[in-house]
Amino acid sequence: MQRLHIGILLLLFAPTTVFAGTLEDAGDIAWVCVASALVFFMQAGFALLEAGFARAKNTTNVIMKNMADLSFGAIAFWVIGFGLMFGDNPTGWFGSSHFLPETLTGSESVFLLFQAMFAATAATIVSGAVAERMRFGPYVLASVIITALIYPVFGSWAWGSFFEGKGWLAELGFVDFAGSTVVHSVGGWCALAGALVVGPRLGRFAPDGTPRIIPGHNLPFVALGVFVLWLGWFGFNGGSTLAASADVGIILVNTHLAGAAGMVGAYVCLALLGRPVLMTTTVNGAIAGLVAITAGCATMPTGFALLTGFIAGPVMVLGADLLDRLRIDDVVGAVPVHAFCGAWGTLAAGLFYADDLFNLHRMLIQLLGIGIAAAWAFPTAFLTFWILKRTVGLRADTLHEQRGLDFTEHYEIGYPEFQKELLHGGKG
Amino acid sequence: MATPNSSTPGIRDALADGFRGLLGDAETQSALSLWDRSYATGKPHALIEYVNEVAAALMLPTRQRHEIRMALYRALLTRGIDPTRSSTGAAGRRSVTPATVPRVVNGTGSANASAAFRVFRSVVLDVFRGVGAAGATAERDFSQAIRRHASAQKITDSGRMALEAWAAQLDDDGYFLRLAATEYPSFSHLMYVAACEALGPVLADRVFSSAIAQAETLADAAQFPPRRLL
Questions:
Q1: Chain B residue with minimum CA distance to A215
Q2: Under an 8 A CB cutoff, do A403 and B212 touch?
Q3: What total of structural domains would you count in chain B?
Q4: pLDDT exceeding 70 applies to what percent of chain A?
């Protein structure tokens, strides 16, 4: 009986496109404000994770890129992105109102704040993949295009609108509760495009194609970043209810267990492959599990949430192998974690939909949404990076790569007391 | 067997000269056969690769490999043949007179050289040693990367050849002695890029850090801090 109740509740909250009429209650508003703060804090998690994976000479640059995603991204989303994604959407293809929104109600403002954090998350996924060789200026331009255009347009198809109309994917019944595809896969495909256009770091692959490991400078940062991200995920998924209701409980349980199962899945995968159980890989497994459950955390029984997270671990490990084989340099593993596991999680949301398991029609719609996300985000991001490369230049030159982007891009190094032998001590 | 073209007899004779005194007759013959078979008509810029293959086939120790490479460079230069160019065709020749054939590096550098030169030379030779210690494959990859990236770093052919002469442990300091100190970092950066490709960035950083640390022990480091080369 209790299961039935939960099932009904979950079904009620399944599609995230039912925004209108929510966020009226003070408790709901308070909860979404807290959730926004938690998602904001995820930027700190990304900053720690990505800086830890980078070499010491590039930490300031990595953190600057995260800050840029948050700052430029917030403004770009407010100016254009929010209107494109959540404005009136009569055609189902893009929003056409609420650009530069200045007359929002309190509830709408809270919603805007919450969604601005999501937009920044999608953009910041890119910075980890292209770390240590992409120049700051062009990166900021790409970040603005992602938060103002690439992310909101797909978002309008799957989540639009907050006001009038409905996105065409949402109309078909596409399920992506908190954004495995809308946020993570889209960010992941953009990251793949960026990594391809900018090319690998100097010496990342031997002349015969063998990948070389370039260890991050601070693995405790990596682990701490994952803890922060995990914490933030409670706001990311839990806040997507837009209501301080009892459903939040099961969403958080599903989220937590999927993250845990992702770590276990990565560990088991590494053990079965006879590889060393690297901390960097296993903590990425937790993120993989969290990404994967984001689509179905509100519509999936807990056992299946756990399974979804567990499978995400090997998807991430094998996905990273695939990138290595293709000589694509993704510093933090953003593509396997966000693009591949986001796709897997979105499929799982269809496969394991509560009380409607393995519905072929639903699975096909999920696959359509996954494919459309890739078909939209990857080419547009690729074109963006390619144009930037051809016009303002995307890649730091090899001398800057040698000296580190902290010094060459920002004239400020992350660890001045310990990097004297690497740089000039700030002199010519 | 490949048919040597009109330009190869001179190279072949130079190689035979180079091997003399270092290898026995039978070993020399087998080394020359390898040249005829695989290098005479084909691989451009392949002297280092050739020497590595000879050393592997004859199971020669590293030291002897270096001696042979030095001897071959000297023999080729003596005959006016640029060892760093294609092994075939007239384009492979440059105007090198026997008088310009360099001496073997004795480790001291030119007495009237600037502090910057001596520091630079110390760093470069240490990097070559570091790359050499990583094995023959790394050495070959390093050498190929130097050639591939030289123009991107605005290094002329003469500059690249001067660097390669130092790699072959020849005391050919003339080119670098004429350079201003501000031009040395381009060469050390080219070497860094090549080391990253050949060894990977982690080992490359280690080799460079060690070379810089070594150069900092020189008295000249007070006038020209080795970090200026990074």
A1: B202
A2: no
A3: 2
A4: 93
